[in-house]
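ok so for the tutorial part 2 we go from a plain amino acid sequence to predicted structure tokens. step 1 is just haveing the sequence, like this:
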Amino acid sequence: MTSTTEELTATSLLRFATAGSVDDGKSTLVGRLLHDSKSVLVDQLEAVKQASRRRGQESPDLALLTDGLRAEREQGITIDVAYRYFATPRRRFILADTPGHVQYTRNMVTGASTAELAVVLVDARNGVLEQTRRHAAVAALLRVPHVVLAVNKMDLVGYDEAVFAQITGEFTAYAARLGVNDIVTVPISALAGDNVVEPSTHMDWYTGPTLLEHLETVRVDTDPADAPARFPVQYVIRPQRGEFHDYRGYAGQLASGALRTGDTVTVLPSGRTGTISGIDVLGRSADIASVGQSVTLRLAEDLDISRGDLLAAGPPPRLTQDVEATVCHLHDRPLKAGDKVLLKHTTRTVRAVVKEIACRIDITAPIEEGGLDQHTDVQELRVNDIGKVLLRTAEPLALDDYRDNQRTGSFLLIDPADGTTRTAGMVGTTGLVTPDWPHHV
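step 2 — the prediction. this is what the tokens look like for a chain of 441 residues:
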């Protein structure tokens, strides 16, 4: 019989993010998921029960399972995203719990940037709010493949089907105009446990899956293993003495695709080609390197390759010094045209200048014909702003569009003076339905 550990190793992994406005019940939902899926340790649950009793509550307040993480946020942690790991017999999960306040839009971008699914929480009493539209727009911006609308606190509206239907219709219409097509809606009560892990006995009009059932069964089609191979070189290994003095290897993590011994790769930005003569994984030879693996590649040819170069196979990335990108500004100091920055793309860091702030995208306004409203008369992007910029780099970069490859289509802008991260960028077009770039860009 297969052990539990072996079973979990064999199950797939789903990365998902939760988002919701303040007081929508997100902490309770996360606590309910962990509790009802039996992913809470006995001592953790006992501590929650004791804390709840001290507050005069008869039943445990499951929101307290995340209180320690909330306290960390109040201490000023830079990236205010709490990650939770749990598993069921059918799937393993990494949950990114993102803050709900408007001023933490940048933090939702951080949490959702690697997510394959986003759970957007709505209070049934309040319906779709500005922050709900913001969350939907961020999910579209980051091309999150699957979105779940969880209409919470259905117990406080008498489990009324009409309330659920009205919220569902408004949200799905808005999200569809953003280009989000895969939307599943679930009526829940995180406090009572309705339709979170167990089916509700109060909403027989709902015949769909519970939230956890959908998370366990949703098909994740976006597999970086199917993308063209991209291998950013992190370190060149060349022993100086001993029996391996002729050894030269290129170490890094395979960002996408797969590489095999005998494959031809192109070295960028030089454009030279070489043949993989060997692959070393943890000191042992292997025939194939898979996406996400940290490996050392050996080439048959003696080529000039250094940290920051990209080994590519399949359709090549675009080599350019002019970068059109959608960005989310993360820093309190605004981003302005003319700013000199460092652009970090995979393992390569180059000097760059912000040539133009093309526009700021209003992700909360009602969607007009042609897409989201764009303000083209802006001179800067402030913290949490999302916009389009044009950058000029001092050296060529090998870039994929973000929609084709998230790893090699994303970058960071760094302050050259103090090393702080200022902006997160996505190359080219994104998932947002917006008019074309301004003609002068």
